[in-house]
Amino acid sequence: MDKKIETFLEWIKTSNRIVFFGGAGVSTESGIPDFRSVDGLYNQKYDYPPETILSHTFFRSHAKEFYKFYRDKMICTDAKPNITHIKLAELEACGKLTGIITQNIDGLHQKAGSKAVYELHGSTLRNYCEKCHQFYPVETIISSKDVPRCEKCGGIIKPDVVLYEEGLDNSTVKNAIYQLTQADMLIIGGTSLSVYPAAGLIDYYQGNRLVLINKSTTPMDSRADLFIQDGLGNVFKNIELD
Ligand SMILES: [Zn+2]
User: Fold this and answer.
1) Where are the domains of the chain?
2) pLDDT by residue (tens digit) across 220-231?
3) Which CATH architecture has domain 1-30+81-121+167-242?
4) Which residues surround ligand 1, an ion (CB under 5 A)?
5) What is the pTM of this model?
6) Residue 239 half-sphere exposure, CB side, CA atoms within 13 Å?
């Protein structure tokens, strides 16, 4: 077996407060595209780039067009958890992993059975009336036409997703930081770590078992105690728990 994988497995065996920090690469193996990487493709079909459509200003001014893109590209209810989601849920169930901090909004970690999931960018599965805060499931968004409205008060329903120009949820960030300060092993996967807030949050980890798994090199490689240049599934499939 590859020496780096061996070290990875040995560290998992001897750690008890593992934290996983994941990005889009965790979900691409479930067929969910990283919209940032296919910008050009979407530009052919939409009048604005995804970064514009998914901004707070655009949601306020062009809610109908926002929802056209959002329904088409951001909601992926058919996607299933992959081997990485499943192994992470198993690590939590057997008491080794204390939390997952994710930049993804697809809810796949919870689908795999994970409980302690900190969703930095929210979730497409949760939606709220902006006026009365009535909760709506993703099905309401899918089945509605144009701009979904609250059946109680008529207010606009907004996904519980952090749009561009919006700040992160304070309590989610607080919990994520707490997890990182308590961790004895930190696994970072599927993110290039080139964008805020990922790079900044990672500094809260003070241990010496920082594992970075990514297909390509990232600006953080030199900070990692172990850098495995591979797909997440290829690495996580080696984890065997008794
Ligand atoms: Zn309402």
Assistant:
1) 1-30+81-121+167-242
2) 788 899 999 999
3) 3-Layer(aba) Sandwich (3.40)
4) 129, 131-132, 134, 150, 152-153, 155
5) 0.93
6) 22
